Amino acid sequence: MLRDGRPRTKTEIAELTGRVRSTVSLRLAELIEDGLVTELPASGGLGRGRPSARFAMATQSRVIGAVELGARHALVAMTDLTGVVLRQERLRLDVRRGPVEVLDLIVRALGDQLDAIGRPAGSVVGIGLGVPGPVDPRTSTLTAPPLMPGWDSYDIAGHLRSTFPVPVIVDNDVNVMAVGEWVTRWPDEQDLLVVKVATGIGAGVIAAGRLVQGARGAGGDIGHIPVEAAGERPCGCAQVGCLETFASGRGIAMTLREQGVDVTEAVEVVALVHEGDPAAMRAARDAGGEIGRVLSVLVAGLNPAAIVLGGDVAEAGQPLLAGVREAIYARAQPIATNAVEIVISADPEGSTITGAARLVQNYLFGLPERPVVYYQAADQRRRA
């Protein structure tokens, strides 16, 4: 009720929640004691009687750890209770080094950020973490992640809780990004696809106003759908011909190497596209076409209002976007495509950090019926 930052009196809260004032008073007292809500000075009024006290979220009293873990990097942030970033840093790492080494780096980074903003470890109320693999929602552990050898079933939350004894919410990175995109730029929509194209490829699905994880956390794992263009290229999932072997950063780089271009990583591909290299632009467009063909099935099945592309490869811009659009418009029915917006995310890393913080907020305060817009910046960033 107080998550939007608007101060309210006990009477207003009781009316909006349908609870009696005594229950509201008890709950407010608990939240104040936990440092999550603060009582504001009563505002003056022109009517008779004593002005009523107002209550609001204590945005500065506690902090949330928000982490995006990629195959080659981690973005580690501390936010206030509304998700406003107080400090963040980017770490270079390799998830193939295993969970202990990587998570220890993240724990140290979180501790360094607390020191930098002058907050004790006890001020952390929760940590949200997005990881590049399917997360079983029943256990919050990764299930056979192709990009993360040694992480299968590892207790990520328990590792972090050994230093920070707070709730730790773990989900697939593109799911986390989807939540962030939804609440900051598309809060009025109930159906949304967010697609991350980087070392791997995945989709975060918002359907009927809810994040769709699937029974075992594999919802939206489109990178391992076989596509004809990939031929017999081997994939880390032990299959051949998966979408990400052709359309991920490494997949596009492989296509270019087959044409005699010396590239290995997504950043090199994107640089060539920005330089106007014809082969790189064609490869990015072809990759977008294969992604679009796969997405056309989701468009037919889910009828999203928007499709948002993010990740390192999405920085290639127009060639990739054009390929995605062409394939979707060619394959899906007009009733599903006439109104859909297909765009590149304005701030994919920011959305992932926002999403990680929001997972913690939802755990602590409950899942709202509609996305809560906290601050003016969110309105200003929408559909930027």
TrEMBL record:
Pfam families associated with the record: ROK (PF00480)
Q: Which InterPro entries match?
A: ATPase_NBD, ROK, ROK_cs, WH-like_DNA-bd_sf, WH_DNA-bd_sf
Q: Which PROSITE patterns match?
A: ROK
Q: Which residue spans adopt a coiled-coil conformation according to this UniProt entry?
A: none
Q: Please report which protein family the annotation says this sequence is part of.
A: Belongs to the ROK (NagC/XylR) family.
Q: What name does this protein carry?
A: ROK family protein
Q: Which organism is it from?
A: Cellulomonas denverensis
